[in-house]
Amino acid sequence: MPLLSSILNVSLLVTLVLALGLSGAAFGLFAHNNILGVCVLDITTDIETGNHKLCNASLAGYILASICIAVVTMMEFNKLVYGKTANIAGKILQIILLSVSIVFLLISGISVTVGWAKTCKTIKNTSGLSCSDKENPFLIVVNNQEMIGSAVCAFLGLIFTISATLLAVVKNILTRKEDDDEKPIIDKY
């Protein structure tokens, strides 16, 4: 059982690091297009009401998802390296934080995808140019690849976060016994 527990711990930590990296990348790519308050999600809406609310909600979702994943990653890192185990409340907290990050990544990924698609449709209807045209003046403000990359990273981060949640649940079920006396992985080797 200790070998299975070690494999599950390392697998969960690697999955969490990947989820954290993808969530951070999604945030970075999206935030780069929001420098100086420029956010072009659905340019048809009023800038004071719809545009900034959708952008700020997406940014907040990315930030909160990254924070939740980072907290769970640090909890797992402490478990793996220092042997600091979480009690039942800590294990429940991990599942709650991962579930919250799933919701925020899903909402942010969908809002960026839908907002950018609607923006591209509006640009095409008003100017006849697509978002991939080099002559498009709107692409000076917003980089098409970064918006697409942000959505892709959000959805990949979502997949890894769901995987981490399932791994955490499986690990908690398979290692039900209290492992307070378990030594850190560094001392084992």
Could you write a compact summary of the structure shown?
This protein has one domain (1-178). 75% of the residues lie in helices and 0% in strands.
The count of domains is 1
Overall body shape: elongated
Strand content: under 5%
Distance between the termini: 17 Å
Protein structure class? mainly alpha
In helices, the fraction of residues equals over 70%
Helix-strand topology string: HHHHH
Radius of gyration: 20 Å
Low-confidence stretches: 43-50
What would the average pLDDT be, to the nearest integer?
78
**Biggest sheet, in brief?**
none
Number of strands: 0
Number of helices: 5
Secondary structure blueprint with pairings:
Layout: H1 2-32, H2 47-82, H3 88-127, H4 144-174, H5 185-188
Helix pairs in contact: 1-2, 1-4, 2-3, 3-4
Descriptive report:
By secondary structure, the chain is mainly alpha-helical. The protein has one domain. The protein has five helices and no strands. α1 runs antiparallel to α2, α1 packs antiparallel against α4 and α3 packs antiparallel against α4. The chain is elongated and about 65 Å long. The relative contact order is 0.20. This is MARVEL domain-containing protein. Keywords: Membrane, Signal, Transmembrane, Transmembrane helix.
